[in-house]
Write a structure and sequence with these properties.
heterodimer; A: mainly alpha; two-stranded antiparallel sheet; B: mainly beta; Immunoglobulin-like; 2 domains; 5-stranded antiparallel β-sheet; 20 strands; elongated; coiled coil (chain A); protein transport (chain A)
Chain lengths: ~950, ~300
């Protein structure tokens, strides 16, 4: 039995007579440069290929139907089929995230700075065939040689390409594939595709592999499309092209034969990886051959991948197969699952020696390496999960569990499966995450994925809090740096809460998130470098909550910040936060609240230090002043800080200001001078004037100091009788007394202004005291006068008992000038007479005790400061002594002690006059 | 004078039918047109088996399988333009010889040609046109008995090992679904690397064709690799079955042929290349046949 055939072969233009033409050319040994015509030496069948014929008709009936006139018999079946096809094709709907959307993401994520290389052996496949079949009929050989000639050089090796160069080269290859195809050089096109897919077996510069996969599969897609369209165009019958969902019966033999030829050609590709990829690329063409072609091919290709040793290369091969499979035959889920299960079986390879050695050579860490798998696994799982029943997903989960809950898998499961599915089982997932073997894949990424799902779908109501707690427990365990993770979490929350102002209902939760964040991150530089932290704060739009949150943050800052900081990020953020707190202050704000806020802000201000950059520091204070003008304690703090700054400057300059520092110190002083009047509390103002005046004086800013003191003097008359202290009204005299004493002590060292009179400030102050409306039954004025005597007495010394460094006080200015002393004497006399006048007014019965006390006080003053050799003064003191005892109000013990003191003093040299005095002071014994 | 060419339609398996087309501008005077069918086996001894000198001299005589001629047109005139002459040529063997399949090998060639001769007067040259036609045998009827083979490869099973001690330990198991293969269907099976101390570099299927020519001087046997298919690349996962799948190349294979004078046989080698460059090969003879599967099913 024989069967005779003549075979139109290969991919040249089909012409039934062509094989014969070629045969003749053989006998004539014609050279056929550039020809792509076919050969006849093939031993293939064409008319009724046994293989295809058996695949064609699955049962005799359909064979009959196909053999019968297609026009008359087709419609019913056709219609039914079309309907089915439609269902099938609609299996991938718009809700399936297409590959194209993943592409860019992968390209952007997997980049490298290392040098890449492309190694193309054009024509090596054919070269091999030539050498082996040395007796292959001559025409075949010539033809093969011609094919080699199509390439300029049969081998191209491009080294040291940057990533961009590499991408350009690949794009060039893509272009030359299209060119070769359009210029009818199908074999060259095939070679390009084979060489490109061969690049995928190369895993040097492994971190670039995912991107390489993207680039090269683009070429494969192009190729698959070209071949498919080419064969489809051959099916055009009577200018009517095939419908989209044609059946293999309606494909003519030429097209089938061409298609078969492609498959034969590809089946003979020596290397596994190119053979796999190229066949997968033209998977769709199986539609021309038989209905079941694709469903038979997919499992075969799937198991073929098992031969790929490198797990990374294999998983990407699987991803490509799934991608092509989803595109061509989305209804064939089996292969998708099989791919995944096969992957699971080979998973252990990742930790095998071969891979580990490779990583060591390339200096790639395991966590990085594992992330290279993500795009592929994600894609495979996405394909599987698409419209998959929950049962399947549960099974997948179980299988992953069996592999020791591998983190990488779990992550992909979570990113691929439906959010609702994940959300409903979030507790399970958390348990799995907790148990899972990290093996280099960071857990926080798992929580991130889980979080992303939960953001899309709500977990069961009851579980929510627990989920957050559990998740947070782990999140907080993360070691530093955790910035990225926190950022991610916050970003997710923001994303979730922003629509419809959902955050309004979730303030307590959000607040607790913030609290947790600041509990665990107290490195504020880190905290504020978390991009989403401030936007997160912005979600607290209800003022009370917002302020609460700000307070929390500030408390944490004050508690945890050890070192003064000048980090602009921290400063900006905290200023923002403090401003928020400050701005919440209004007329209705409670004092307590204000105080708390002020304390917090002060705490912050105290922690700001620009080190030696004093000007920066000052400008910060200026900025702070403008921001926090409504909180007095803050202003006070600022004034103190500025004063401190001035003193610090002085310390640094060791008291000798340069022109620049002098100007700077004056700026500080000016700051204080203009800030103080804005305060409402009068004693604060007074004290600050005094204090700032002292600082100005210390920094040799004499006129500024004068200004402070004058201001203080002119402010004294405004001091009210009663002031509120801690919410209670108290008489102000004690405070005033204290202040004035303090003031007078300072005035000792303040040099007189050359244009004002002697002791201008002291006189001014005395005048103010004189005019001040004192409480009727108060002796404060006299007490102050008595104290003034201390001052005046000190002023008469040749050298004052204390000085301000580098400031010439009156002692130096006047040098004990007699006029000056006379002035002081005059002043003293006035004061003394004032005191005595007052003592006289106390002669009434009910005020005798006060009189006694004052007299004693005055006596003591004279004793301490007066020159008792002066007879008048001596007499005055004796009178005072007697006055103090006159009405029996004197405390005997005190009097005795005083007397003992005098006696003791008298034993000192040049103090003999005290002996006389002691004799003149009788002790009145109480009866 | 124009071209002539054949169009051959192979409807009937035992009849070569077709049409001779003659085109010319003028009328053609001729002394008769005839068709000759020739089929022969050419054997050549390779330089490897005999001396180089002998290789050229001792070419075995071609064995003629078929040779018959039919007269198509009696002497006369053909009109100008295109003339089509249909023909049917029965394939009748000389004696009890077998009609082998067309085969182009290295040392064995089986070729069938159809020659059309137009004899002409003394003044004009005779016109001849030759065309090869291809014979596919369907002779092997009936069911193909599958002959599965299981194999295990370990260092102990290897032959031709020089230093067995230096070999890394390995265990490779597998099976071929059948060594009796239908030529149009792939060779299938599975292979499992159960264990291997050294990393696997590659596993390949090597299809080898063995041509044997017998002649007076003895016989010559030559093996040629005609296809090499990689089924595993890199260090494959242990214990995971890897499919063995190879499509027979149409150009270089034919059904296994055994005659008294020559043989064409096929073998497949499973080649495992380890990373330390150890090469492990396991050989399986194959028997290829061509069976119409439709027939087989009946």
């Amino acid at each position: 039995m024989c069967k005779l055939e003549s075979v139109p072969l290969d991919f040249g233009d089909y012409h039934p007579l062509k094989p014969i033409t070629v045969t003749e050319s053989k006998t004539k040994k014609m050279t056929r440069k550039g020809s792509t015509s076919s050969t006849s030496s093939s031993s293939s069948s064409s008319m009724m290929d046994p293989l295809s014929s058996v695949l064609d008709g699955t049962d005799p009936l359909s064979l009959f139907a196909a053999a019968a006139d297609p026009v008359t018999t087709a419609p019913p079946t056709d219609g039914a089929r079309r309907k089915r096809d439609k269902d099938e094709s609609s299996a991938v709907g718009s809700d399936f995230e297409p590959w194209s959307s993943k592409r860019g993401e992968i390209l952007a994520r997997y980049t490298t700075t290392e040098k890449l290389s492309i190694n193309l052996y054009m024509g090596s496949e054919k070269g091999k065939a030539t050498t082996t079949g040395s007796a292959v009929s001559e025409k075949v050989r010539t033809r093969l040689e011609e094919l080699d000639d199509l390439e300029e050089g049969s081998q191209k090796e491009l080294l040291n390409l940057t990533q961009q160069d590499y991408m350009n080269r690949i794009e060039e290859l893509n272009q030359s594939l299209k060119d070769a195809w359009s210029s009818d050089q199908k074999v060259k096109a095939l070679k390009i595709v084979i060489q490109c897919s061969k690049l995928l077996s190369d895993t040097t510069v492994i971190q670039f592999y995912p991107s390489k996969f993207v680039l090269i599969t683009d070429i494969l897609d192009t190729f698959g499309k070209l071949v498919y369209e080419r064969i489809l165009s051959m099916c055009v019958d009577n200018r009517v092209s095939l419908p989209d969902n044609f059946s293999p019966e309606s494909v003519n033999d030429t097209a089938k034969e061409t298609c078969l030829n492609w498959f034969f050609k590809i089946a003979s590709i020596r290397e596994l990886i190119p053979r796999f990829y190229v066949e997968a690329a033209i998977l769709k063409c199986n539609k021309f051959l038989s209905k079941t072609g694709i469903s038979e091919c997919l499992p075969r290709l799937t198991s073929m991948i098992r031969g790929i040793g490198d797990p990374l290369v294999a998983v990407y091969a699987r991803a490509y197969l799934c991608r092509v499979g989803m595109e061509v035959a989305p209804q064939l889920k089996e292969s998708l699952n099989k791919n995944f299960f096969d992957f699971l079986l080979t998973f252990k390879q990742i930790h095998g020696d071969t891979v580990q050695n490779q990583l060591v050579v390339q200096c790639v860490e395991i966590p990085l390496y594992l992330t290279l798998y993500s795009p592929a696994i994600d894609w495979i799982l996405q394909c599987i999960a698409y419209h998959a029943p929950d049962v399947l997903l549960t099974e997948m989960m179980e299988r992953c569990k069996k592999l020791g809950n591998n983190a990488l898998l779990l992550n992909s499961v979570m990113s691929a499966f439906r959010a609702e599915f994940i959300a409903a089982r979030s507790m399970d997932f958390i348990a799995m995450i907790k148990e899972c073997d990290e093996s280099g894949f960071p857990k926080h990424l798992l929580f991130r994925s889980l979080g992303l799902n939960l953001a899309l779908a709500d977990p069961p109501e009851n579980d929510r809090l627990q989920i957050l707690n559990e998740a947070w427990k782990v999140i907080t365990k993360l070691k530093n740096p955790q910035k990225r993770e926190v950022n991610t979490v916050l970003a997710d929350v923001i994303k979730h809460m922003t629509p419809d102002r959902a955050f309004e209902d979730a303030y307590p939760q959000l607040q607790s998130i913030i609290q947790k964040v600041i509990t665990y991150i107290y490195d504020f530089a880190l905290l504020f470098s978390v991009e989403k932290f401030l936007p997160f704060l912005d979600m607290f739009q209800k003022e009370s909550v917002r302020v609460e949150v700000c307070k929390c943050i500030m408390e944490s800052f004050i508690k945890h910040q050890q070192e003064p900081t000048k980090d602009p990020v921290i400063l900006n953020a905290l200023l923002h936060i403090c401003k928020t707190m400050h701005d919440s202050v209004n007329a209705l704000t409670l004092e307590d609240e204000k105080r708390t806020l002020a304390t917090l802000i002060n705490g912050f201000i105290k922690m700001v230090s620009f080190g030696r950059d004093f000007e920066q520091q000052l400008s910060f204070y200026v900025e702070a002043r403008s921001m926090f003008c409504n909180l007095e304690p803050v202003l006070v703090q600022l004034i103190h800080s500025v004063n401190q700054l001035a003193m610090e400057t002085r310390r640094v300059m060791k008291g000798n200001h340069s022109r620049k520092t002098a100007a700077f110190v004056r700026a500080c002083v000016a700051f204080c001078f203009i800030t103080i009047p804005s305060l409402s509390s009068i004693f604060t103002r007074l004290n600050l004037y005094l204090h700032s005046g002292q600082v100005a004086l210390a920094n040799q800013c004499l006129s500024q100091a004068d200004a402070f003191f004058k201001a203080a003097v002119s402010l004294v008359p405004e001091v009210p009788k009663m002031i509120s202290v801690d919410g209670k009204m108290r008489p102000s005299d004690a405070f005033l007394l204290e202040f004035l004493c303090n003031f007078f002590s300072t005035l000792l060292v303040v040099p007189d202004h050359p244009e004002q009179g002697v002791l201008f400030l002291v006189r001014g102050l005395l005048n103010v005291i004189q005019d001040y409306t004192w409480e009727d039954n108060s002796d404060d004025k006299v007490r102050i006068y008595t104290n003034v005597l201390h001052l005046l007495s000190a002023m008469t010394q040749e050298a004052f008992i204390y000085h301000v460094d580098k400031v010439d006080s009156n002692d130096t200015l006047y040098g004990g000038d007699s006029k000056f002393l006379a002035e002081i004497n005059k002043l003293s006399e006035t004061v003394v007479s004032q005191i005595l006048d007052h003592l006289k007014t106390l002669g009434k019965e009910e005020t005798l005790k006060r009189q006694s006390q004052l007299a004693h006080y005055f006596f003591n003053t004279i004793l301490a400061h007066g020159d008792l050799r002066n007879n008048r003064l001596n007499q005055l003191s004796v009178n005072l002594w007697n006055l103090a005892q006159k009405h029996g109000f004197a405390d005997t013990k005190t009097m005795v002690k005083t007397l003992e003191y005098i006696k003791r003093r008298s034993k000192q040299p040049e103090m003999s006059h005290f002996t006389d005095l002691a004799l003149r002071l009788p002790l009145q014994s109480r009866t | 004078m124009g071209w002539e060419y054949f169009r051959i339609e192979a409807d009937s398996p035992e009849v070569l039918s077709g049409v001779v087309v003659i085109t010319s501008k003028d009328t053609v005077q001729h002394q008769g047109i005839s068709l000759t069918m020739e089929g022969s086996v050419n054997l050549q001894l390779s330089a490897k088996n005999v001396g180089v000198f002998e290789a050229f001299c001792n070419t075995a005589k071609p064995i003629q399988i078929i040779n018959s001629t039919i007269e198509m047109v009696k002497p006369g005139k053909l009109p100008s333009g295109k003339t089509e002459i249909p023909f049917e040529f029965p394939l009748q063997m000389k004696g009890n010889k077998v009609l082998y399949e067309t085969y182009h090998g290295v040392f064995v060639n089986i070729q069938y040609t159809l020659r059309c001769d137009m004899r002409r007067s003394l003044l004009a040259k005779d016109l001849t046109k030759t065309c090869e036609f291809i014979v596919h045998s369907l002779s092997q009827k009936g069911k193909l008995l599958p002959s599965p083979v299981d194999f295990t490869i370990t260092p102990e099973t290897l032959q031709n090992v020089k230093e067995r001690a230096s070999l890394p330990k390995f265990l490779i198991r597998g099976h071929l679904n059948s060594t009796n293969c239908v030529i149009t269907q792939p060779l299938t099976g599975e292979l499992v690397v159960e264990s291997a101390e050294a990393a696997v570099k590659s596993i390949e299927l090597q299809l080898v064709r063995v041509e044997t020519c017998g002649c007076a001087e003895g016989y010559a046997r030559d093996a040629t690799e005609i296809q090499n298919i990689q089924i595993a690349d890199g260090d494959v996962c242990r214990g995971l079955p890897i499919p063995i799948h190879m499509v027979f190349p149409r150009l270089f294979t034919c059904p296994t042929l055994e005659t008294t004078n020559f043989k064409v046989e096929f073998e497949v080698n499973i080649v495992v290349l380890l990373h330390d460059d150890h090469l492990i090969t396991e050989n399986f003879p194959l028997k290829l046949c061509r069976i119409s599967i439709a027939k087989q099913e009946k």
